[in-house]
Amino acid sequence: MVHTTMEGSLFEPTLYIVKGMCILDNDGNRVLAKYYDKNVLPTTKEQKAFEKNLFNKTHRANAEIIMLEGLTCVYKSNLNLFFYVMGSSHENELILQSVLNALYESVSILLRRNVDWRTLIDNLDAVMLAFDEICDGGVILDSDPMSIVGRAALRTEDVPLGEQTVAQVLQSAKEQLKWSLLK
Amino acid sequence: MSSFKRDKKEEEDSGGNPYQNLDKTIVLQEARYFNQTPVNPRKCCLILSKVLYLLNQGEKFTTQEATEAFFATTKLFQSKDVMLRRMVYLCIKELSTLAQDVIIVTSSLTKDMTGKEDLYRAAAIRALCSITDSTMLQAIERYMKQAIVDKNPAVSSAALVSALHLSSTAPDLVRRWANEAQEAISSDNPMVSYHALGVVAGSRKNDKLSTVKLVTRLARSPLKSPYALCLLIRLAAQLVEDDDSEASQPYIEFIECCLRHKSEMVIYEAAHAIVNLRKTARDLAPAVSVLQLFCGSSKASLRLAGARTLARLTAKHPTAVAACAVDLENLISDPNRSVATLAVTTLLATGAESSVDR
């Protein structure tokens, strides 16, 4: 019988719910990843193998959720980025989903709705801080994107023009133009 | 898909990805730049994120390399740039397990934790607790207690979550903070309330009587935070499992009440608990009908949650699940393969011969 292995069990009353979070590029390579449980995928080698497997199983179908290697993984993709949140297979899927939403939405706000690989790389520090604000050692720290972004200390855009590089000035001009067109 | 791929590669070639082909020794050399005054926040942030990126990719740092990088990072405390300071905290946390003599930053972090800048305080608490060992905990105990009941939710949550982590190494000390944590359960902020409940419940883990008191009290004045409610349902369910006499009736009632909550997360948590606790098919009916509804949801995670819990139920109550056969049959062709597989196996386990043809 299939079901003897997954017979009824209550969820464990713990705050340590998130086993891992990662962002992969469209080749399945790690852009950022954090694993929070020493007993789950302890080495980088295992983690990266898992990420490859996860990517292969998920990059074509945007099916939101998958059970893989004893973990429940919720995911979401945009253009060339893939966002994943992992939890134990004995976990409330909807809690994991709320963490994924928090991750995706906060990154999206941080990147000013340009959720693509290039913009992410240019703002990697802010995204690292967002990771840190969403989950602390496996405990969900915050799930409200606005408050996460507020805590991740958005870089103040008041750098004097003289200290910006040409590329930065061009980038911000491009962004302003794009937003004015989108309005 | 392939066009996106090409886009990215082209960009990679022209745009100059600062994280491509990073070399550890070069990055560590760049970290020496932290000694220069005045500090250039943007430049230092980039170097710190390179260090963090390398660690994140699994690059191995020797103790000496990590210690050098750590000490270079501590020089950046002289800058007041918020973003940079936050990156410094992050580096401290990541390097704290690899480097030696990390307690050197204790005083800087204690200063930030008790300072005026709220954005510093929350993050400083978390960084401080990651470098502090149980012998040094007493020195910061007073500040921790204050922080737990702080008005700023970020500060309060940071202190509570740190307390939770510390309770694995210094349970007795953390237990002394339970009064403050207790107070924080009634916070208006949903996360603070959740974290506080976690700390209090953790400190009472081996004391059944006080857990009973806690759950009874909170079940009567329901919590606002959906996460806290999920945790409370788990605690209540555990009490029922330990003792399923008449005495546990109020907990069952509380959990059933949560089936009518407005948050899907809480509804599912309650349904899952009931399915695993209740013995007769009649008692199960309200929970099963909720799960049935989930099976028809447009969100895949809801369909999976519903189908998975029903699948688990087949072993105990095949008849209760058989009533959902039609809903499960609809899931056989589900675009999500995990959902479809679950539906098929469940139907095979419960199905009558008549339904096999369909």
SSE map:
The complex is a heterodimer of chains A (183) and B (358).
Chain A lengths: L17 E8 L4 E6 L8 H15 L6 E4 L2 E8 L2 E8 L4 H18 L6 H6 L1 H11 E2 L2 E2 L4 H7 L14 H17 L1
Antiparallel strand pairs in A: 1-2, 1-5, 3-4, 4-5, 6-7
Chain B lengths: L1 H14 L8 H7 L10 H16 L6 H12 L7 H14 L10 H9 L3 H14 L2 H15 L4 H14 L4 H5 L2 H8 L4 H14 L4 H13 L5 H17 L6 H10 L5 H14 L3 H15 L4 H14 L4 H5 L2 H7 L5 H14 L2 H4 L2
Helix pairs in contact in B: 2-3, 3-5, 4-5, 5-7, 6-7, 7-9, 8-9, 9-12, 11-12, 12-14, 13-14, 14-15, 14-16, 15-16, 16-17, 16-18, 17-18, 18-21, 20-21
What does this structure look like?
The complex is a heterodimer of chains A (183) and B (358). By secondary structure, chain A is α+β, with helices and mostly antiparallel strands. Chain A has one domain: Beta-Lactamase, CATH 3.30.450.60. Chain A has six helices and seven strands, in the order ββαβββαααββαα. Chain A has a five-stranded antiparallel beta sheet, with helices on both faces. A two-stranded antiparallel ribbon of chain A has the order 6-7. In chain A, a hairpin with a 2-residue loop joins β6 and β7. In chain A, α2 packs antiparallel against α4 and α2 packs across α5. The termini of chain A are far apart. The N terminus of chain A is likely disordered. By secondary structure, chain B is mainly alpha-helical. Chain B is built from 22 helices and no strands. In chain B, α18 runs parallel beside α21 and α20 runs antiparallel to α21. The longest helix of chain B is centred in the middle third of the chain and has 17 residues. Chain B is globular. Chain B starts with a helix and ends with a helix. The mean pLDDT of chain B is 89. At the A-B interface, β2, α1, β3, α2 and α3 of A face α1, α3, α5, α7 and α9 of B. Chain A: Oligomeric complex that consists of at least the alpha, beta, beta', gamma, delta, epsilon and zeta subunits. Chain A: This is Coatomer subunit zeta. Chain A: Keywords: Cytoplasm, Cytoplasmic vesicle, ER-Golgi transport, Golgi apparatus, Membrane, Protein transport, Transport.
